[in-house]
Design brief:
Blueprint (H helix, E strand, L loop, with lengths): L2 H17 L2 H4 L16 H15 L16 H6 L4 H11 L6 H30 L11 H32 L1 H5 L3 H42 L1 H37 L21 H12 L3 E5 L7 E5 L11 E4 L5 E2 L6 H6 L1 E2 L4
Antiparallel strand pairs: 1-2, 2-3, 3-4, 4-5
Helix pairs in contact: 1-3, 1-6, 5-9, 6-7, 6-9, 7-9, 9-10, 10-11
Length: about 350
């Protein structure tokens, strides 16, 4: 493989590691694809870069003792990666030869960060860092959120300014990018790192905060009764939302099946399959069952005919401690029982409004 191809891939991959980590793009559900060729993918190299970083700098879990009385951007900077550390990483991974296509791609990516705005960035970061632990009130959470807010604002500010600086470098160095002058290319590389460094430093500080928040929330949720109760309550809430949403979606599919088949469908054998792969269960049926079981529920569909059906999502226990029972019939109205008793859901359950 040509050296320039490897170096170019490494540069782009490291840039994606520094600039566009998944936690800030909130790509829930996004999937990576594996190229057929042997050239390392962006995802593979970005993952390798993260692993190198993590192996060199173990994450330190902050406690209340670490939280200074005076707070702000300067205090945040003292607890996280310095410009010198970030520059050293960039110098290590950036190749000596930069292409216009790669640099243009980077400008577009950093512009997308600026376009999000600090409010949207803050929400995305917190959702990623505390996924599953949103209601866990770990020690120092308020101060952690303040630091995340500062970092999000500074990231967006530096992304906005950095995009303009990077574009100016590309515009002013067309001849260098088109030529083979190694000295000029080395100078361009240094200018590029200088222009990108302020944003990259804040991005790394944010990444450190995210890892710290994840670790502290998890430790608090598993290390004491109060944290465990908060986590348990949040987990039940998420499971109920997943089950209620699943039933709402399933009614749309049931109505479509009734129109096509003349009746509602109660089991997988009544759901149409791909004629080329009849041995594979219907994808929608499988998704509904997987959603229910993933939330700890059992989905029971009964009474299917041309006009009626009922579906009940049954929680692990009937006392409501692991979630309430959910149900729905041909009306399409999702109902929830006051406890976990599925028998009470259809008869006296109240309409579920998302909570």
């Amino acid at each position: 493989m040509p050296t320039s191809r490897v170096n170019g891939a490494a540069m782009v991959d490291f840039f994606l590691y520094i600039i566009m980590t998944g936690m800030f793009l909130a790509a829930a559900g996004a999937q990576e694809t594996t190229p057929a060729a042997t050239t390392p993918s962006v995802a593979d190299a970005a993952r390798a870069a993260r692993e190198r970083r993590e192996s060199m700098t173990p994450v330190r879990i902050m406690t209340d003792d670490d939280i200074a009385a005076k707070r702000g951007a300067g205090d945040l900077a003292n607890r996280s990666a310095s410009e010198q550390e970030v520059r050293a990483e960039m110098e290590k991974h950036y190749p000596s030869s930069l292409t216009k296509a790669d640099l243009t791609q980077q400008i577009g990516q950093i512009k997308s960060i600026a376009a999000r705005g600090d409010a949207d960035m803050l929400v995305a970061v917190k959702n990623s860092a505390l996924a599953g632990y949103e209601n866990v009130d770990f020690p120092g959470k308020k101060h952690w959120e303040e630091d995340v807010s500062v970092a999000a604002t500074r990231m967006v500010e530096e992304a906005d300014k950095g995009a303009a600086r990077l574009q100016a470098i590309v515009d002013d160095n067309q001849n260098v990018l088109a030529g083979r002058d190694l000295a000029a290319s080395a100078h361009l590389r240094e200018m590029w790192i200088d222009a990108l460094l302020p944003y990259a430093t804040w991005q790394q500080r944010m990444r450190d905060l995210v890892e710290d928040g994840k670790a502290r929330a998890k430790a608090y949720a598993t290390g004491n009764p109060a944290g465990a109760a908060e986590y348990h309550h949040e987990a039940i809430r998420r499971n109920e939302i997943a089950v209620g949403g699943m039933l709402s979606s399933m009614h749309i599919t049931e109505d479509e099946l009734r129109i096509v088949q003349g009746h509602y469908a109660c089991d997988a054998s009544q759901w149409p399959r791909d004629p080329h792969h009849p041995e594979i269960p219907n994808v929608m049926w499988t998704n509904y069952m997987d959603t229910a079981s993933g939330a700890g529920y059992r989905l029971d569909i009964q009474g299917c005919d041309a006009r009626h059906y009922s579906a009940v999502a049954i929680p692990p226990v009937s006392d409501g401690s692991q979630g309430r029972a959910f149900c729905m019939d041909e009306s399409g109205v999702v109902r929830v029982a006051p406890d976990g008793d599925p028998a009470a859901c259809i008869s006296r359950g109240s309409e579920w409004v998302g909570r």
